[in-house]
Write a structure and sequence with these properties.
Elements lengths: L1 H14 E4 L2 E4 L1 E3 L1 H11 L1 H21 L5 E12 L28 E13 L6 H67 L5 H36 L3 E3 L22 H21 L5 E13 L1 E2 L7 E2 L10 E11 L5 H69 L5 H36 L3 H7 L1
Parallel strand pairs: 3-6
Antiparallel strand pairs: 1-2, 4-5, 5-7, 7-10, 8-9
Helix pairs in contact: 2-4, 3-4, 4-5, 4-6, 4-8, 6-7, 7-8
C-alpha cells in the first residue's frame, strides 16, 4: 500500500512542495526564458559588471597624469634662530633651515612661518602617459569581455540544467511505468504461488523486482529534484519545465563552421594577451627623460633679521607669525634615472614571459574548444543514429515482455525470464524518452563550443 500511495503522489511532487505549512507552486517556464532570466540576474554577472566598472575608473585615473600637479603648503613653528652655512643631504634627523650664519650662538627662539604653492607640469613624455592610458583601456576591454564570458557560461549552464531537468522528468515517468508493471507482475505471481502452481521463490523474486523498481523511481525523483534545485538557483525562483516539442522531435542541423576565436572565452583570453602587450609598450617608454615645467610662489615669515652684518635681533613677540618675505620662480627641470635601465629591462622581460604564458593559454582555449566541438558533433551524429533505431528496440522489447509474461503464465518459463524482459523494457522506455533530448543536448554542446546559444534558443521557441 505504501508503494501505491507514493506512486500516486509522485506527479504532484514534481510540481509543488510543502514548506513550513506554505504551498509553493512552481511557475512554468520555457528554456529560452530561463536562460534569459539567469543571464540577467545571476549574482556572478553583477560581480563581473562591478569589476568592469572598476576597470573603467582606471582609465580616468590614468588620464589624470596629463594634468598639472599643484602642491600648496602652510606652516608655523617656534625655533632657535642660529644657523650655519653648508649643505646637508636629505635626512629626517636634522631639520633644514635657511639664512646666513649668525655671529652669536643663542638658545633663544623666534617665530617662523611659511606659505606657498608649486605648480609642476610635464609638457611632453614621449608617449609614456598615453601608454598608461592604453593599459587601463586594455584592462577595461578584458573586464567587459569577462562580463560576456560570464553571461555565456551562466546561459549555457542554465540550458544544460533545463535539459537535465527534462530528462529527469522522462526517467521518472518511465520508472513509474516500470514500477506499475512490477506491481502487476507481483500480483500475478502472488496468485499462482498461493494456488501452489509456482514455488514460493517466484514470489520472493517478484517482490525483489518491485522493490528495485521502486528504488529506480526514488532515484529518478531525486535526480529531478536536484536538477530542479539547481535551475531554481540559476533562475532565482522555483520553476517547472515546459518541454514543448523538444520531446517529440529534434532539428537536424543547426551550426555551420564558425571561427572559434569569436567564442567569449577565447575573446577574453585574447584581451588578456593584449593587456600584457600594452604593459610591454609602456615599459619601452619608461627610460626616456622626464621634463617638468615648474613654477612656485611662496612667502616666509622670519622673526630674526639683520643677521648678515651684526648679531640678529628678534622682533616683537609675534614677529614671524605672518609671511613678510615673498619669492617666486619659474624653471624647467629634466630628470633622467640613468641606473633604472637594468630594472626596467628585467620588468620588461617578465612581461614578455607573461605574454608567452597568456598566448599559450589562448592557444589552449582554442584547442579545447575545437575538441569540445568535435565531441559535440560526434555525439550529435550518434544520437541521431540511435533515434532511428530506438523505435525498433522499443517495439521488440514490448513484444519480448508480453511473450515472456505469456510463457510464464502458461508455465513454460521462469520468473527470471520475465524479470529480465521487464528490465529490458524499462531501460528501452527510458532510452525512448531521452532519444530526442539527447539530440538537443548534443546541439547545446555544439552551441557551447561555438560560443553562440541564440540559434539553439530560436529552435526551442
Amino acid at each position: 500500500m505504501r508503494h501505491v500511495i507514493l506512486l500516486v503522489f509522485l506527479p504532484l511532487l514534481a510540481q509543488e512542495r510543502v514548506s513550513t505549512g506554505t504551498r509553493v507552486v512552481a511557475r512554468p517556464i520555457g528554456i529560452a526564458e530561463a536562460v534569459e532570466t539567469a543571464s540577467k540576474n545571476y549574482p556572478s554577472i553583477r560581480i563581473s559588471q562591478a569589476q568592469a566598472a572598476a576597470a573603467a575608473t582606471q582609465i580616468a585615473l590614468a588620464r589624470t597624469n596629463f594634468l598639472p600637479k599643484i602642491d600648496a603648503v602652510a606652516g608655523v613653528n617656534r625655533a632657535t634662530r642660529n644657523n650655519t652655512f653648508g649643505l646637508l643631504l636629505p635626512a629626517q634627523v636634522i631639520a633644514p633651515i635657511s639664512g646666513p650664519a649668525l655671529f652669536s650662538n643663542s638658545m633663544s627662539s623666534v617665530w617662523g612661518s611659511t606659505v606657498g604653492v608649486t605648480v609642476s607640469w610635464e609638457p611632453f613624455d614621449f608617449g609614456l602617459r598615453g601608454s598608461q592610458v592604453d593599459i587601463a583601456e586594455a584592462g577595461r576591454r578584458r573586464a567587459d569581455l569577462g562580463i560576456a564570458r560570464t553571461q555565456f557560461e551562466i546561459a549555457y549552464l542554465t540550458a544544460d540544467t533545463y535539459l537535465t531537468y527534462l530528462a529527469a522528468e522522462q526517467i521518472v515517468r518511465s520508472a513509474s511505468a516500470a514500477y506499475i508493471r512490477a506491481l502487476a507482475l507481483e500480483k500475478i505471481v502472488t496468485a499462482v504461488v498461493r494456488a501452489d502452481l509456482r514455488p514460493g521463490g517466484d514470489l520472493t523474486r517478484a517482490q525483489a523486482e518491485s522493490a528495485m523498481a521502486m528504488n529506480m523511481v526514488i532515484q529518478a525523483d531525486q535526480a529531478r529534484d536536484l536538477a530542479k534545485a539547481t535551475l531554481a538557483q540559476l533562475v532565482g525562483e522555483t520553476v517547472a519545465v515546459q518541454a514543448g516539442e523538444m520531446l517529440d522531435k529534434a532539428p537536424k542541423i543547426v551550426y555551420d563552421r564558425v571561427p572559434l576565436d569569436q567564442h567569449p572565452l577565447a575573446r577574453e583570453q585574447n584581451a588578456a594577451v593584449e593587456e600584457v602587450k600594452s604593459r610591454e609598450k609602456s615599459l619601452e617608454k619608461a627610460y626616456y627623460p622626464k621634463f617638468l615645467l615648474q613654477g612656485t610662489s611662496h612667502a616666509r615669515g622670519v622673526g630674526a633679521y639683520d643677521g648678515l652684518q651684526k648679531p640678529a635681533n628678534a622682533g616683537n613677540p609675534v614677529s614671524g607669525l605672518g609671511p613678510n618675505i615673498q619669492n617666486w620662480a619659474l624653471g624647467f627641470t629634466m630628470l633622467f634615472p640613468i641606473f633604472d635601465y637594468p630594472s626596467i629591462r628585467i620588468r620588461k622581460e617578465a612581461e614578455v614571459q607573461k605574454e608567452k604564458a597568456e598566448q599559450a593559454k589562448y592557444d589552449q582555449v582554442l584547442r579545447e574548444l575545437q575538441g569540445q566541438l568535435d565531441r559535440a558533433r560526434a555525439m550529435l551524429m550518434g544520437a541521431q543514429r540511435i533515434a532511428t533505431n530506438v523505435p525498433i528496440q522499443l517495439k521488440a522489447a514490448r513484444e519480448a515482455k508480453e511473450q515472456a509474461t505469456a510463457r510464464y503464465n502458461a508455465g513454460l518459463s521462469t520468473i527470471v525470464e520475465v524479470a529480465d524482459a521487464e528490465r529490458l523494457l524499462a531501460q528501452t522506455e527510458i532510452d525512448a524518452g531521452l532519444v530526442n533530448l539527447n539530440i538537443w543536448r548534443a546541439i547545446l554542446n555544439e552551441a557551447g563550443a561555438v560560443g553562440d546559444l541564440e540559434p539553439f534558443l530560436k529552435l526551442t521557441r
